[in-house]
Every structure is written in C-alpha cells, then in structure tokens.
C-alpha cells in the first residue's frame, strides 16, 4: 500500500522510540535548513530526547504503517519539538500533531528560526502570532529566531433564554 495514501496514526512515544524521534528531527532540520550548523552527533541528540524531553514532555509520533514520519514534544505551554520527515510534509501530519498539543494547552509558545519561512507560514496558518524576534545570540546555533504565541479563544456562549420584559 502506498504510504502517501495511508492516514497517519498518532501514538504516544516511549524510551524505545527516542532514537527514531531524534533521527526525524535531524533529517527534517538538515534537509530544510542546510545552512544551520551541525552542533551535535546523532547520539547526543538521542540522549537529549531520552534524558530531557521524555521526562518533561508529552511526546507523540505520527506513524504510517510501522514507519514513524513525524514527532512532537510539548508541555508546560511550550512546543519543544515538531518535525515531519520532508517526504511526508504538506500532507496534514504536522497539523495533526499540532492539533494534539492545542487540545491539551490553552496557550502555547514556541521558537523557530527567522529564516525558516516554511515553519513560520505553518504556525501563522494555525493562529500563532510572532511575539518577539531575537538576534540569535542566546541560542546555540547563533541564528536569529522568533518566538510565536497562540492562545485558545474563549468559548462563546449564547443566552438562548427568552428575555422577560
């Protein structure tokens, strides 16, 4: 069956998935942003997922068949990681993963690089607004970045009771 025609399944990821999650991040990042410096080995990135993200975040994956094609790590009103393999982008997988985070949090912040035009357009389509831009001196890549913010709109309630006049 063609992977492109299969609906992704959202699954909770555990320790045994951290190598695959780190690999998705690495592949998506370096294919889409080849100008970024490669600062960590694959093993260091896996350790970051295993030792920092796994204990502190909800980590979900998007699987098509047995293949993990996207991943999100979020918690405490932040999206820490959201990546989809390049061959599976523009298929709604990122939107599906982002929707899971939006269901659980009333407000969300996240960082992305200013030059990451695709990610910026994606987040803006999903209701995020740029809140702050930096020169990048505080991130390890030394790349100008932008802080995005989203807040759930309050539920509108309609008073359907007839007025007594």
Automatic annotation (TrEMBL):
Q: Which SUPFAM superfamilies match?
A: Acyl-CoA N-acyltransferases (Nat)
Q: Report domain N-acetyltransferase positions.
A: 8-154
InterPro entries found in the cross-reference section: Acyl_CoA_acyltransferase, GNAT_dom
Task: Read off the CDD domains from this record.
Answer: NAT_SF
Any single Pfam family the record assigns to this protein: Acetyltransf_1
Q: Which domain of life is it from?
A: Bacteria
Please identify the protein, giving its name as recorded. Answer: GNAT family N-acetyltransferase
């Amino acid at each position: 069956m063609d992977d492109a025609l299969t609906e992704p399944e959202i699954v909770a990821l555990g320790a045994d998935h951290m190598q695959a999650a780190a690999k998705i991040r690495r592949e998506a990042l370096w294919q889409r942003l080849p100008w970024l410096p490669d600062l960590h080995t694959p093993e260091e990135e896996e350790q970051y997922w295993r030792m920092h993200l796994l204990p502190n975040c909800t980590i979900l994956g998007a699987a098509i068949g047995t293949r993990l094609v996207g991943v999100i790590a979020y918690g405490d009103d932040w999206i820490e990681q959201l990546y989809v393999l390049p061959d599976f982008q523009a298929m709604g997988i990122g939107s599906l993963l982002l929707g899971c985070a939006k269901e659980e949090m009333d407000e969300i912040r996240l960082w992305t690089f200013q030059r990451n035009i695709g990610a910026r357009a994606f987040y803006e389509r999903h209701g995020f607004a740029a809140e702050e831009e930096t020169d990048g001196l505080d991130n390890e890549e030394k790349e100008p970045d932008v802080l995005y913010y989203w807040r759930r709109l309050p539920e509108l309630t309609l008073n359907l009771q007839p007025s007594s006049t």
